[in-house]
Recover the amino acids of this structure.
């Protein structure tokens, strides 16, 4: 069955016109993208709907394509340099404003605002985009948590080693302190037995210790001399 050719004329029905515009626009954008990819062509496509909505496609930045078109050598005999510059700047300004508006609208959609005007297809795409973003966030958060956990484990090992070193050092100090008082107590007992109690208590061990050691050494020396004699 031969497909009937559609007569090219304005579609009177508004709904049918919008459906046809949407289908033809997507086809036009697809053909432009294919032409750019297959033939390495630089393409800039701008489409305004009957309601004034702007749609565009460019193989590179649209401003770059427009500037290249405006500055093309074939156009210099039609437009002077000042007008060319003004038109290029106006076109760039319009595209930047549109880009800013689109990004602002996308941000609002991601925040869950201004969703009433979106179609079902657009809502599905937005939902998938949000799910992909959440998945990336979860992966990044998990990686951060794993790194922090590994760092904490390393610190715990170091603290355990340091704690063990301190315990060993403390045990050695206690052992040394336990060994030292034995000889000191013996010396104190010796001095208390050989000194008058009132003198020992009055002057104290610390003051008499050097003097008594000197006296003791003299006594030993005298005793040795006596036996030798």
């Amino acid at each position: 069955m031969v497909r009937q050719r559609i007569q090219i004329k304005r579609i009177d029905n508004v709904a049918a016109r919008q459906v046809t515009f949407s289908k033809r626009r997507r086809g036009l954008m697809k053909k432009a993208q294919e032409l750019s990819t297959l033939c390495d062509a630089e393409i800039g496509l701008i489409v305004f709907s009957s309601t004034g909505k702007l749609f565009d496609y460019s193989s590179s930045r649209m401003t770059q394509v427009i500037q290249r078109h405006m500055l093309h050598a074939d156009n210099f005999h039609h437009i002077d340099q000042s007008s060319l510059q003004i038109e290029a700047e106006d076109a760039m300004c319009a595209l930047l404003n549109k880009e800013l508006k689109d990004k602002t609208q996308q941000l609002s959609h991601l925040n869950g605002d201004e969703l009433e005007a979106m179609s079902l297809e657009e809502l599905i795409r937005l939902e998938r985009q949000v799910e992909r973003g959440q998945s990336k966030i979860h992966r990044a958060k998990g990686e951060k948590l794993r790194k922090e956990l590994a760092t904490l484990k390393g610190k715990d090992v170091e603290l355990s080693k340091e704690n063990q070193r301190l315990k060993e050092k403390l045990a050695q100090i206690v052992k040394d302190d336990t060994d030292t008082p034995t000889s000191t107590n013996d010396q104190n007992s010796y001095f208390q037995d050989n000194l008058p109690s009132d003198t020992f208590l009055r002057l104290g061990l610390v003051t008499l210790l050097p003097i008594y050691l000197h006296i003791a050494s003299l006594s030993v020396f005298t005793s040795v001399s006596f036996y030798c004699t």
Summary: The beta strands are 44-48, 54-58. Residues 197-209, 218-229 have pLDDT under 50 and may be disordered.
